[in-house]
Amino acid sequence: MERQDELLLYEGQIPRWRSGHCNGLRWTGVPILQVRINFNVSFVNNDDELTIMWGVRNRSIFSRLVVDEPGSVQRFTWHEQIAKWDVFWSAPTDQCDNYGRCGAYGKCDPYDAYNFECTCLPGYQPKSISDWYLRDGSGGCIQKNLTGMCNNGEGFVKVENVKVPDPSTARVDNNLDLKACMEQCLRNCSCTAYASSVVTNEPRRSQLDWSTRHNIICGIARGILYLHQDSRLRIIHRDLKASNVLLDASMNPKISDFGMARIFGVDQIEANTNRVVGTYGYMSPEYAMQGLFSVKSDVYSFGVLLLEVITRRKNSHFYDESNSSNLVGYVWDLWREGRALELVDTLMGDSYPEDQVLRCIQIGLLCVQESAMDRPSMSDVVFMLSNDTTLPSPKQPAFIMKESYYSGDPLTSEGSHSINEVTITMLGPR
Predict the structure, then answer these.
(1) Start and end of every Apple domain (predicted)?
(2) Domain containing 286 — which CATH number?
(3) pTM for the model
(4) Which of 255, 310, 355, 383 has the highest Cβ tally under 10 A?
């Protein structure tokens, strides 16, 4: 049974962009919908019909969807304060959004464009080395070893952050769970990969429920507190990030990778360095810009981690076409507007205590405040996570870049200028 529950944008008969299939929550190729949930998207896919409906949750929001002349799909929402239509999301957004950018068995990473955004999946190599040298990955990849693979002890390699291949080339069986799908794929030599088509099943929800996430957050906080206060030596980690937090079978977190850690003396408060190491997106501003680091640098990194756990989004890979430059900025904007619950990962559904989630978001914002002096210590963070005391209001976080809207009359501004009157007519499809 072929599955066609995705949006495609064509230029004539040539596909230019696809949304990725529906996984039960959203289109997999439109990552902004993972955190911006002002819209309800519903799908019907059966023998009688294939329907996609998109509705606004808040009826006070005005929205429209258009395809402009250059060939971009754009969703606009009306911004009342500036009397302007804002772009909620658009596609394609980058080179990797273009249909078949890296060809068959290719993987596109827009964040590695300096080297070349196209790479091959494990076990594959470029079909044309010369084309890839010229940064043309459209020819795709081929298997490195074409013989002796099937039914010869082969297995699977997990590949993350990719769209499932075009549904016209995939087969869907809703009667199989993920394990049975894997076993069936192993028995079929023409099957090269398998994936779950939906993520809304109850086992996945229960594995990532709020109680589990809250325990992970508290466990990370206690681990950092131990490094800062309870260990024999005071340790500043300097590279706290999601990939350096390991989870055991019971989802208990363990902080790892101390290769960049520094040991502080008993009375030492901060230190500086001319060689800044770490991961952008998790670095505190004083460390990234001045080389100054202290226990408050780890507090900043923890705040970013906390917000990522709640939203299931990476700070450094977050994009918002309207105002915010990263996840922290977007959280700050929604917090000020009283819409912070829109940030919650939709995998949790509605089964979470709103007051506790809002409290954790507020703690995260307190940790990422621009001034290190304003951030709480890790002992304060652990106390705030485990008690219901009143929390202070967070100040503006660091690293927030905004679009500025100029509302003045350019003809009244100072300076010399010339005025040319011209009328331009441009045809646009409707």
Answers:
(1) 150-240
(2) 1.10.510.10
(3) 0.52
(4) 310
